[in-house]
Specification:
Blueprint lengths: L7 H11 L6 H24 L1
Keywords: Cell cycle, Cell division
Protein name: Cell division protein ZapE
Length: about 50
């Protein structure tokens, strides 16, 4: 599941739900920050068009 239209948090949550990853508070904190950046960059890319 490496679809570019899925946010990092969505991918992480799907992998945890499927059992591919175990829930981890540290990973969740990091992926939450990464997800925020991903959304900011996506919004910037759309605005730049």
């Amino acid at each position: 599941m490496s679809q570019p239209d899925l946010s990092p948090l969505a991918v992480y949550q799907a992998r945890v739900a499927s059992g591919a990853l175990s829930p981890d508070d540290g990973q969740l904190a990091a992926i939450t920050r990464l997800d925020r950046l991903w959304h900011e960059l996506a919004a910037h890319a759309v605005a730049a068009r």
